[in-house]
Request: fold
Amino acid sequence: MREKSFWGWGYQDAFPDDDGRRALGEMAKLLLGLESVELLPLPRIDAIELSEPRKRAPEGLPITSERTARISHTYGRAYGDLIRGFGGDFANAPDLVATPESEDQVRQILDWCDESGVAVVPYGGGTSVVRGVECPRDRADAVLSLDLAKLDRVLEIDRTSRLARIQAGATGPELEAALAQEGLTLRCYPQSFEHSTLGGWIATRAGGHFATLYTHVDDLVASTRTLTPRGTIETRLLPASGAGPSADRLILGSEGTLGVITEAWMRVRPRPLYKLSASVRFSELSAAVRAARELAQSGLHPSNCRLLDPAEAALNKVVEDGSSVLIVAFESDDHPLEAWMSRALEICEGAGGKHRGAKDRSQEGESWKAAFVQAPYLQTALVSLGILADTFETACTWSRFEELHAALGENVRRALVETGGGGTLTCRFTHVYPDGPAPYYTFVTKAERGGELAQWAAIKAAAADTLMAHGATITHHHAVGRTHRPWYEQEVPALYREILRSAKRVVDPQGLMNPGVLVEP
Ligand SMILES: Cc1cc2nc3c(=O)[nH]c(=O)nc-3n(C[C@H](O)[C@H](O)[C@H](O)COP(=O)(O)OP(=O)(O)OC[C@H]3O[C@@H](n4cnc5c(N)ncnc54)[C@H](O)[C@@H]3O)c2cc1C
Reply:
């Protein structure tokens, strides 16, 4: 069993050693023009002070108040979580941690919490970046973190209908390994794939591998089963239905506020046999944006249509000559893809793109995945060097993108200068739709030691206010949680929030399910 870091991303043994940190520090120095970068001392779990649990764990249920369990369930993996964990601040630790092994036990735990006035925070992989798994200690007599890790199996497969019944606590690698034995895949790869879970994806409406068409996990969900304090909601397994507002749509994105998703029927597919990809360079970002838009509107549905602005392309060492890059890929388990790729490249050329043709990637396996899942370790390592690195993401219409992008450039860069003396801001498109892109921004700056949380909050507010002012969404796939709530409240109609609150009152009358996330009870 590999041990997970109690404060940072992923497995402890994958965190870089001092030489690795020094090498990363050299890169950060170059990127930010710094004179020196310090290797800060790493936190020690035995030095952490925890308050006493406010409730005793009941007999006969898999609930503990053990110290390490409480520490490792205190935070998600947002920048602010890493900073607090790195600083040894675990004041928000849950009083109790539950690890049910069956749905029956989930029910018993929910019943005990309901009777005892204990708030419940459903916990999948704990990779939330919006303070979704943080424990609201001020909102209840005690808080229990309900970890679904032991509900991790693929229970049933309907090959004819290409469906799989999967337990909510299965992580990406766990469910893919089980499906691979049948030659199948869910093909949902958020960057947090290694540690996040199916239940977490559904609860947050995660964005996965496909850049077009099946972008969110929503599109892969066929039915869900959710245990609420007042009973179970199981939806009918159907390919489609026009019978009123969809119950699955209420569960998708509910972020643990209505109940605990225990399993779902998911739409799976055979593993792809044909894979083609191409990389197209553009001298102007606006030309690359035009190509991405025309591709998104072409009906070709590329599996990848990832635009990198010049800074993003350089940061990722794709090209360093100031070009923007559009990575276009197609995949299929059924047919060769040359015709699709050739039309896609024609569209790119029409917008001024230059390329060296497509590469056949069908024999390459999933080698890209190793680099992809390694990337999150960097942010944690940068925290230990006093560097602030974080991302924000959104979606807007094509007509609004140019102005939004310019305003973000101006406002976020100003905040970077005001709070950290400067820094970098890069942009890529993770997903594209016929009516607009989902731009994803990364910012890096020198952290203000001791003032990191305020510094981060100022940059985040500059970004989020700009998104609201330009008609964009506060999140395309990172969810609302506690962090995005003020802007979510600006984004969605007040009457709709009232409907959500009413729904919560029905299934959770005491307001014990993840209070503070998404809507006020
Ligand atoms: C490095 C990094 C990269 C990321 N990349 C992506 C990405 O590419 N795409 C993307 O969409 N997101 C991404 N995220 C965000 C995060 O991984 C997603 O929100 C993910 O879906 C969370 O899954 P989880 O299992 O870790 O859930 P958790 O973090 O444990 O929980 C998230 C929320 O869902 C609730 N929840 C969890 N499980 C259940 C359940 N069974 N029933 C009810 N509620 C539940 C929790 O209470 C919480 O509110 C990234 C995060 C990190 C740190």
Observations:
- The two ends are 39 Å apart (CA to CA).
- The first helix runs from residue 18 to 32.
- The chain has a mean pLDDT of 96.
